[in-house]
Amino acid sequence: DTKGIYYAKGTGMPAWTTDHNLMQKRKNTYTMDLFNKQFAMSTTAHSVMPAISAQNYISMLHGRPWETLPKEYQGTNGTMGQHYFADFGKDKQLYPSVFKVLQKNNPTQKAAAFSEWGPIVNAIVEPDAAVKTKQSDSLKSFDDVADYIGTDDFQNTAMVYMQSDYMDGQGHGNGWYNDNYWNKYAQYDGLFKKVMDKLESTGHIHDTLVIANADHGGAGTNHGPNDEPDSNIFIALGGETVDSGRRLHGGSNSDITALVLNALQVPRASHMFNSNVFDNSAFLSQGELAGKKRNVETVKLGYKGDTVKLGLTNLKKTRTLNAVDMQIDLAGRNVNSIQTVDGVKVLRQKSENGILKLTVSIDRQPVEGQTTDNLATIKLSSVANRSAGKIAIKQAMAGTTDGTEVLVDLDNGDANNISRPSTSKPLEPSKPSKPSESLKPSKPVDNGSNPDSVVNVEKVISLHESQKEIPLYTSDLKKISNKALSGGSDWFSDKTMTKDGVKYYRVASNEWVNEKDAYEYTNISSVLTTPKDKITFLVKSNGEKITNRALAPSTPWATDRVVN
Predict the structure, then answer these.
(1) Distance in angstroms (rounded) separating the CA atoms of residues 73 and 93
(2) E strand residue ranges, 314-390
(3) Which residues contact 446 (CB under 8 A, 6 or more apart)?
(4) Region Disordered: which residues (predicted)?
(5) In whole angstroms, what is the distance from residue 169 CA to residue 61 CA?
(6) Tell me: the pLDDT tens digits for 301-338?
(7) Which domains does the chain have, with CATH numbers?
(8) What is the mean pLDDT of residues 270-292?
């Protein structure tokens, strides 16, 4: 976190501080730049409880919080050194690891795991999982991963997992977050750089999602309690489709499996619980990727009346495209005909649920010119009352003559009209930890008692999922006509505004959400038991009663958030 660090004197209790001199003790400049500028990162994520290694690695790799597992499956640091994860050897495996889920989805793809802490690769990952495992030497897991990236096997590998145990040893031996801890942590710059450089040099930086996280924190020479120094962790995501520099909010170690499956477009496993893509704002749609200035080929669409023209721009002299696969939203229109230019052939043409799936082969590289029709022209049927939506390419992938897949940019003119929260001024909640002497509460603009007021706050809100799109308003309550937010998404708000008795939350510089469309919440990790003498009814986030589902008496249920 660029705004502060945990710091302790000797083996004392760590405290969150923004003192500049103390922050200078953190010397890992490469990883600070990597995670804060090139990745999207949450510094308000938490370990599962208890904040101990085995419990958190089980949660990461098996897709649900440790405490929600049956007793038999609740491995510990001690038992995982003596026994395999409890699913091993059973006819029906109830809580398979992410490796097993990937193996079932595509048996031909490979996986690998390199861990400096033996129980991960020797017990937590099932011994019959189709995964190459190695217990790495201290500080050598990064070398092992970099070496594996350079092998032919990596070409067909779905997931590589790695774990470094060195800093846990430093915490136990000398204390967490003290001078020694931060001095030792600096060496991870070179280790992370080795892996990232290998991805870059092999070209896999463009088709790999990197997830970096911690299993737990610590205090004194131990860890485990439910306090911030012990449980506060970071989760950072880096890759081609990640919104670089975005500050994410929330997250848990149990979310790691969900992030992996989402990236690989593999369906969730039925046993997963409280394992989610915790902040969808981390990822850009393909239409938004052009903002990253990636210098890749662009598929361009232009249309007028009943005619759509498709073309390629920003072509490269160093490679030749030989195919393009596209999904085009025709806004309710039907295709009359598709006419390709010389050297381009239609391999697939299928309309499904309003989307045209079109694949073309290219026998010769199109000549980039001033017009957009160097691939194909589509003639659409005339419709008197056609959809108000805009015709746009939703997804596209190109292939080269040497077999490389290229995630191209999309140019749909002004067809993209759903906004993302601004990243020019990152908004993030402060650490809810024990303050140091350098932390003092700021004075709010107003205490909120006035009929019309603006108050500085630090709140996390969620938009009601029952609404597909949530309207935005300016500070003078004018509805923003060309922007909206997705229902079910989470947002950080740094100000509230009350006008005529109605509260609004600010989510960007001049974009506000009405309180009726959102609710405030706090992330927790707990298990609740329903009353023993009655059925417990459920409600949606907006208070609407759910009529087709209820909870049985005396049953335990994990919960990850509480409404404020």
Answers:
(1) 11
(2) 321-329, 335-340, 344-352, 355-362, 376-380
(3) 453, 454, 455
(4) 407-453
(5) 22
(6) 998 888 999 999 988 888 889 999 999 999 888 999 99
(7) 5-278 (3.40.720.10), 289-411 (2.60.40.680), 523-563 (no CATH)
(8) 91
Residues facing 300 on adjacent strands: 311, 411
- Dist. CA 253–CA 134, nearest whole Å: 22
Q: Residue count of the chain, please give it.
A: 564
Rounded CA-CA distance 361/378 in Å is: 16
Vertex 474: Cα angle to 498 and 542 (nearest 5): 60
Phi, psi of 508 (to 5 degrees): -155, 180
Helix (H) or strand (E) segment spanning residue 480:
strand 479-486
**Single-letter amino acid code for the residue at 227:** D
DSSP three-state, residue 509: coil
**Cis, peptide link before residue 14, omega less than 30° from 0:** no
- Tell me the per-residue pLDDT of 507-537, one tens digit each, with 9 for 90 and over: 877 889 999 999 998 877 777 888 888 888 8
Residue 171, helix vs strand vs coil: helix
pLDDT digits (tens, 9 = 90+) for 423-444: 433 333 333 333 333 333 333 3
Q: What is the pTM of this model?
A: 0.72
The three-point CA angle 169-51-84 to 5° equals 80
pLDDT at 428: 39
Residue with tokens 């060195």: 166
Instruction: Tell me the per-residue pLDDT of 163-173, one tens digit each, with 9 for 90 and over.
Output: 999 999 999 99
* Distance, CA of 392 to CA of 415 (rounded, Å): 6
The pLDDT of residue 434: 35
Task: Tell me how many degrees the CA angle 231-234-235 measures, rounded to the nearest 5.
Answer: 125
| Residue 59, SS3 per DSSP | helix
Return the amino acid letter for 522: T
Cβ–Cβ under 8 Å, residues 67 and 48 = yes
Distances (CA, A) of 241 to 91, 152, 265, 292: 39, 25, 14, 9
- DSSP-assigned letters across all residues of 251-296: -BGGGHHHHHHHHTTPPPPTT--S-----GGGB--GGGGGGG----
Q: Cβ distance 106 to 93 under 8 Å?
A: no
How far is Cα 214 from Cα 431, in angstroms, rounded to an integer?
17
- Find the angle CA(280)-CA(293)-CA(469) to the nearest 5 degrees: 30
Distance CA 489, CA 461 (A): 9
Residue pair 536/550 in contact by the 8 Å Cβ criterion: yes
Count the Cβ atoms, other than its own, within 10 Å of residue 357. Answer: 14
Place of tokens 């495992």: 133
Per-chain mean pLDDT for the chain = 87
Provide the strand spans (E) within 142-231: 157-163, 210-213
Which helix (H) or strand (E) element contains residue 492? strand 490-499
Distance spanning both ends of the chain, measured CA to CA: 26
- Which two structure tokens, joined as six digits, stand for 542? 């907006």
DSSP state of 532: T
Q: For 155, list phi and psi in degrees, rounded to 5.
A: -60, -30
